[in-house]
Amino acid sequence: MKKILLAFLLGTATLAVGTSCTKEYYDTVVPSITMVYSRDANQWQNVQNSTTSKFVPLSVPELTDYYVKQGIVNVAISFDNESNYNTLPATIDGVSYNYEYTAGSLTVFAQDPLLEEGINVPVPQRAFFKISLTEADFVE
């Protein structure tokens, strides 16, 4: 009888503890801003007179020192009038795309992935660059 009573007591306690917990959900909204730039093939420049690396500079006044030191900077590229985007860095059709940034500007690079001399890197006739800036909490 004691075993049945003990089992009943444990079962009731487990049920009471398991059902008394409530889940709380917090919606965290991280503010972001996004800009889209379009550039034509004639706006790309050679890196140090090299045919294996080209770049296109973008003036981004919204890219403040805050985003350089603490925020998040994401870049995507589209070759089909913004129907599809590829997140950078990426290798697309044999061309490696990456970027670097500083306050006020962002530069997108197109390179031969192997950097073989004599290889001419084809740049798109028109490319769209989507730049997203997101606030973030920096933890040291």
TrEMBL record:
Domain of life: Bacteria
Record's keyword terms, sorted: Signal
Signal peptide residues on this chain, from the entry's feature table: 1-18
Protein name: DUF1735 domain-containing protein
